[in-house]
Design a protein that fits this description.
The protein has 6 helices and no strands. It has 160 residues and is mainly α. It comes from Lentilactobacillus raoultii.
C-alpha cells in the first residue's frame, strides 16, 4: 500500500471516529457530519506539525487550538453549543495508547517505563488543554474587536 492510500485511510478513520464518538455521546444527527470534519481538521493540523517540525506537545497544542477555534465558529454557524463539536473533535488527539502502556507497565512492574508513558500522557493532555484555553482567548479577542468595530461604525455614521 502506498503512502497516499494509507494517508486517505487514516483521514477516513479519523473522520469516522469523530462521527462515532458523536453517536456515543448522543450528538444531534444534524451535527454529526460537521463534528467528523472538525475532528479531521484538528488531526490534520496535528499530523502536519508532528511530521514536519514539532513534537508531541506543539502538535497537540495546535491541534487542540484548531479544534477549539473551529468549534466556536461552527457553533455560531449552527446555533448550537460549542462543546458538541469540541468533544468529538478531541477523540483523535487523546493519548489513549500512552495511557494503556502506562497502566500495562505499572502492572508488569516496569516502573521507569510506566512513568515515561505517564509523563507523555500528562504532557499531551496539558498541551490539548492549553490549546483550548488559547482558543477561548482568541474567541474573546475576536468578539471584543467585532464589538469595537461596531461602535466605531456607529460613531462614523452619527458624524454624517
Amino acid at each position: 500500500m502506498n503512502s497516499v492510500t494509507f494517508f486517505i485511510i487514516k483521514c477516513l478513520c479519523v473522520y469516522l471516529s469523530g462521527i462515532g464518538f458523536g453517536l456515543i455521546v448522543n450528538l444531534p444527527h444534524k451535527a454529526l457530519n460537521i463534528a467528523g470534519f472538525n475532528a479531521l481538521l484538528g488531526w490534520l493540523v496535528y499530523d502536519v506539525i508532528i511530521n514536519t517540525w514539532g513534537g508531541l506537545g506543539s502538535a497537540n497544542f495546535f491541534g487542540g487550538l484548531c479544534i477549539g477555534v473551529m468549534s466556536v465558529l461552527i457553533a455560531r454557524w449552527k446555533k448550537m453549543p460549542s462543546i458538541l463539536f469540541d468533544v468529538p473533535g478531541l477523540v483523535p488527539l487523546v493519548p489513549g495508547g500512552q495511557a494503556y502502556n502506562a497502566i500495562k507497565s505499572f502492572a508488569m512492574g516496569s516502573y521507569q517505563s510506566a512513568f515515561n508513558y505517564l509523563s507523555q500522557v500528562v504532557w499531551i493532555a496539558g498541551s490539548i488543554a492549553l490549546g483550548f484555553i488559547v482558543a477561548e482567548l482568541v474567541n474573546k479577542v475576536r468578539l471584543r474587536v467585532e464589538r469595537d468595530l461596531r461602535k466605531l461604525r456607529r460613531k462614523r455614521l452619527k458624524k454624517f
